[in-house]
Amino acid sequence: MSVLQIHNLSKSYGKIKALNDVSFDVSSGSVFGLLGPNGSGKTTLLSIILDILGPDAGSYSWFGQPSTHVHRQHIGSLLETPNFYHYLSAVQNLRVTQSISQRGDEIAIENVLKTVNLYDRRNSRFSTYSLGMKQRLAIAAALLGNPKVLLLDEPTNGLDPVGIAEIRDLIKGLSAAGHTVIMASHLLDEVERICDHVAILKFGQLITSGPVQSVLADEDCYLLNANDQEVLASVMQNFPGISRVSKTTDGLECYFKIVDIAPESINQYCFTHDLVLSKLVQKKKRLEEKFFELTAQP
Amino acid sequence: MFLNIIKTEWLKLKNYLTFWLLLLATAISYPGINAIVYYGYDESTKPKNQSGQLIKMLVGNPFHFPEVYHTTAFLSSFFTFIPAIVVIMLITNEYMFKTHRQNIIDGWQKKTFVWGKFISVVLVSLIVTLFYIAVATVLGYIATPDLDKVEVFAKAKYIPLFFLQIFTQLSFAFLLGLLFRKAFVAYGFFIFYGLIFENIAVAFLKLKIKQLGGVDYGQFLPLEISDRLIPVPAFIGRFNDTDYKIALESIDRHVIYSLVFILLTWFFSFYIFKKRDL
């Protein structure tokens, strides 16, 4: 089942197209990474699906229904920066969150503050917090009442390496417990470690989306085809250095553990096994190249 | 739904020291201005000599029941700019902390957010009106020599009029806060407009009344609309009887104008907040 469906969303700020005809689905239980360099439209997209920005065109739906405020109550969200009342303490701020979202209670507030290691400072005013602590409070607010869907925009912003690792474990734990997590990040490494699905945005356009291993594969992939796909698959299974093969409508995707494998050797190998290739294309770029392609200025 | 809104707004405000300090400042300013004027009046009418009696004859008994409700309302209304800070802060704080976005993200509808502010402005107006009632009643008891001979509540209509005036003007302050989003811009505008610009404009329009087809357009200006709910008190009004009579007669009309103004102000507030990107 789809938790979130996005259809052809577009949004412009004057001449700048922040989002251009973006569509994708997020299925229930997945950890979905929204990836892209600064200014690629990630926050704009998240703002639209949280109803604080109106799209110029397109639509979206939560849980298969047109979005309402009740859906937002059931989504734990952290958007861009931690937004809290500076003069209130962590507990007092979370009471406001609780009152608006109707998620959780006093005990839940204490529990989430313990989860993000902010319990000892729970009665200090928000204005006295460091950047990392503010971020932790924002995560606590999103976690309040154990929502089924979490929407986190750059959740590790301002956190130290320990904090980043804690959040990573936290998200993995949530995923294991069946929660759906949608997170935006420009940190490729982070997304690759946590997410199972990704969508990549660049200058407001969706470059690609799908399972993380096929999008961000840190391995060489070749697309092969021959008259008999079955035979080709069984032959390629035994290729030295192969990691896996998968059949697609375009042909057979072969993933190699060896980096920089020579296409000649594949061709040679198939020929010696009485197979003539009708197609031999390098399909995916490696992670690093992908990253540079993604972040490069035009 | 409304209980939840009130609870949430209360959670936002109850630990906000500045909010309470500003209400305290209002609470002090009302008895302050009234006591000063009362003291001046009391001092100048006390002497049993001719000048004392003459002043008494001229100004009457502005602090006696029931006239005290009128006098105090008029004097207190000079200090609307203090609760106006409170109201402007209520909305510009949300913009400053970006909590206006967070409230929506957490599950409020945009209209719920504005309803929260509407209720807060009503509550601030009520609190301020209570201050005024307390000051007027206490002063009345102090100043009125023979309580049996007066109808204490004969001019108690100034209580709802005072509330209507303060709510109209605070609604205007709120709209400015919503429009400008920055406290100092909104408040600067409110002060400059309220204390300087509108007074000049009202006087100017009155001066040009003949050229404008005999219509006093000044009465429709945002603050003047409700300023005229509480005309100058009798002790000043009596120096120009015809004008004073006209002022008293136009109160009813300005009740309607003020209600329309409130309606428009909040209609715009809801509309702007709904349409504008957060």
Explain briefly what this protein structure is.
The complex is a heterodimer of chains A (298) and B (278). By secondary structure, chain A is of the alpha/beta class.
Q: What is the strand and helix layout of this fold?
A:
The complex is a heterodimer of chains A (298) and B (278).
Chain A: E1 2-13, E2 16-27, E3 31-35, H1 42-49, E4 57-62, E5 65-66, H2 69-73, E6 75-78, H3 90-101, H4 106-115, H5 131-143, E7 149-153, H6 161-176, E8 180-185, H7 188-194, E9 197-202, E10 205-211, H8 212-215, E11 220-226, H9 229-237, E12 242-248, E13 251-256, H10 263-272, E14 277-284, H11 287-295
Parallel strand pairs in A: 3-8, 3-9, 6-7, 7-8
Antiparallel strand pairs in A: 1-2, 1-4, 4-5, 9-10, 11-13, 11-14, 12-13
Chain B: H1 2-13, H2 17-45, H3 50-59, H4 68-76, H5 81-97, H6 99-105, H7 110-143, H8 158-180, H9 183-207, H10 224-227, H11 234-237, H12 241-249, H13 251-275
Can you describe this structure?
The complex is a heterodimer of chains A (298) and B (278). Chain A has helices at residues 42-49, 69-73, 90-101, 106-115, 131-143, 161-176, 188-194, 212-215, 229-237, 263-272, 287-295, and strands at 2-13, 16-27, 31-35, 57-62, 65-66, 75-78, 149-153, 180-185, 197-202, 205-211, 220-226, 242-248, 251-256, 277-284. Chain A is α/β, with parallel strands linked by helices. Chain A contains 11 helices and 14 strands. Chain B has a domain at 2-185. Chain B contains 13 helices and no strands. In chain B, helix 1 packs across helix 7 (110-143). The longest helix of chain B has 34 residues, at 110-143.
**Helical stretch count of chain A?**
11
Sequence stretches where pLDDT stays below 50 over 5 or more residues of chain A: none
Mean pLDDT reading of chain B: 90
Q: Give the end-to-end Cα distance of chain A, rounded to a whole number of Å.
A: 38 Å
Question: Strand-and-helix sequence of chain B, N→C?
Answer: HHHHHHHHHHHHH
The low-pLDDT segments of chain B are: none
Residues in helix, % of chain B: over 70%
